[in-house]
Amino acid sequence: MSLRGVTIKEGQIGANVIGDGREFGLITNGVAIAGKVSLGSVYTLRRVSDATALGIDSNYDASNGVQVYRHISEFFRRAGEGQKLHILLVAQTKKPGEMVDDAKTLAVESGGVISDMALAFNPAADYEDTLLDGINADIKAAIPLLQGFADWCDEKDMPLHVILEGRSIGDMLSACVDLRGLVISEQPFDAEKVTLVVGQDWAYADTLPGHGKKFADVGTFLGVVASMPWNRNPGEVETQNLTDSQLGVWTIGGLSNHKKYSEVFSELETLNDKGYVFPIRYQGIAGYWWNDGHCCVEIVNDAAGNMNQHTIYYSHTMDMCKRQLRLTYLPEVKKPVSLDDDGKLPQSVAGYFNAIGDGVFDSLASQALISDGETNVDTDSDLLLEKVLNIDFAVIPTGCVNEIKGTINLKNQ
């Protein structure tokens, strides 16, 4: 018996449910600074000042002919300070397709928590852009390799989405390859985990020398993605105006062929249909917005009602559901399970496992991150020899209003 009368102890704190746990990554060509930043090493930033402490600032970009600080500063301008950005710099001789091993290093050393990884291409001054099917040949060659990287991450329980800088797009937009119908080595190829960004802050790019003028603002796009829940469209009109007139940022939008929005306006519908990401304007409102969150894959809806991941927010929905389901089911692995006389799973036990998955979906739906989800455990699963519990999951993502169509009439009453 205690003489204290009333005893109140502090309870244990469980897993943090504030936020969605995402972290972000950036790989780009850069230059080492002795005693500050090295090539091939991973650095975690939470604000722009963390980058300047490494010697990465606007002078670093100008002296080395790169846009490292640009991408980092734009990320935090949109995402806000406090978000985790893991960066890794590589030699300027490396092309995006040659950064896959570095991307794996970044994914692993960050603890597998990166949900979106951007790859920026800062080649040396003597680099010459070569076009293939209307886009930079080295960028096009990287797309299937980066899809392979995303597949590798998924197999290692680190699902993520890749955002690729589409520098130096061709001037003739009608000649640009259809990203929703890619053909690699004469075979159709789907890269649903890759988004190609070909937009730039034209006024900023115009201040850059040489091929810097043809860079694309992947840091801005990554920052927009990081600033909002993972099921949201990065082109959301209410919240994602890229322009800041006081800072003089994104006052003129353009493409990575260094053409202003006004110069390419008539061809942008075609570029949008082909799955490219770039800035657009809306008449009557000042500013620029991303057109959408396209992926390099055709839009598919099969006879069973299954959709593919043709937008970045559907890709996020798939990845984040898999991450949460895996973590929730993991404690059940290797536990004993009682079976019926015929070796099959009793309905009561199947109901238990169904409830686990449905609980995940209910939680995500209550946060308006998905619309609904359903778990269906296979009672014929062999837990005696194969020891594998088979489960089918179905998730309905949240929808998105990309366009509003209406009719209007003049009435006399």
Structural write-up:
The protein is of the alpha/beta class. The protein folds into 2 domains: 23-290; 312-397. The chain has 11 helices and 16 strands. It has helices spanning 48-53, 58-64, 68-79, 100-109, 137-155, 202-205, 218-226, 261-264, 268-273, 312-329, 347-366, and strands spanning 23-29, 42-45, 85-90, 114-120, 131-132, 135-136, 161-165, 183-184, 187-188, 194-197, 199-201, 253-255, 279-280, 289-290, 370-377, 391-397. A 6-stranded mixed β-sheet has the order 2-3-1-4-7-10, sandwiched between helices. α3 (68-79) packs parallel to α7 (218-226). The termini are far apart.
Termini separation comes to 83 Å
The DSSP helix count reads: 11
- Assembly level: single chain
Radius of gyration over C-alpha positions, nearest whole angstrom: 24 Å
> Mean pLDDT, rounded to whole units?
94
Q: Give the biggest sheet.
A: 6 strands, mixed
The class by helix and strand makeup works out as alpha/beta
Question: What overall geometry do the principal axes of the alpha carbons give?
Answer: globular
Topology of this structure?
Blueprint: E1 23-29, E2 42-45, H1 48-53, H2 58-64, H3 68-79, E3 85-90, H4 100-109, E4 114-120, E5 131-132, E6 135-136, H5 137-155, E7 161-165, E8 183-184, E9 187-188, E10 194-197, E11 199-201, H6 202-205, H7 218-226, E12 253-255, H8 261-264, H9 268-273, E13 279-280, E14 289-290, H10 312-329, H11 347-366, E15 370-377, E16 391-397
Parallel strand pairs: 1-3, 1-4, 4-7, 7-10
Antiparallel strand pairs: 2-3, 5-6, 8-9, 11-12, 13-14, 15-16
